[in-house]
Design brief:
alpha+beta, elongated
Length: 113
């Protein structure tokens, strides 16, 4: 993971609203409206956090259909685990995502180099 991306992921995990979104959507997919209530935040704030989490592939967007036949989006956490290693003057952050196989992790690792 590149240094700027490491900083952004740590910043997201430091943000209470982003953490609440990740925790809530780890239990079940949720709509932006439901996340607005869960986070006690405004809709624009929720959508900004959703965008930032999506940029780093920490959320998965899904399409749902209500009984009236209308479509709406829900979000599910892809973040499974974050490991931070600090050794010999360096810091390495390894982000594990749900549904990510070994080939995906290898590709992401290779892209860091």
């Amino acid at each position: 993971m590149q240094h700027d991306e490491e900083t952004e992921v740590l910043s997201l995990l430091h943000d209470e609203c982003a953490r609440t979104i990740l925790i809530a959507t780890s239990e079940e997919p949720m709509s932006a409206d439901a996340l607005t209530e869960a986070c006690n935040a405004s809709a624009p704030t929720i959508y900004r956090r959703i965008d930032r989490l999506d940029e780093h592939d920490l959320l998965e967007e899904q399409q749902e259909m209500d009984p009236d036949g209308h479509h709406y989006k829900t979000y599910a956490a892809r973040l499974e685990r974050v490991a931070v290693d600090i050794e010999d003057g360096t810091m390495d952050i390894d982000v594990h995502r749900r549904g990510e196989d070994a080939a995906d992790r290898f590709t992401r690792l290779y892209e860091r180099l």
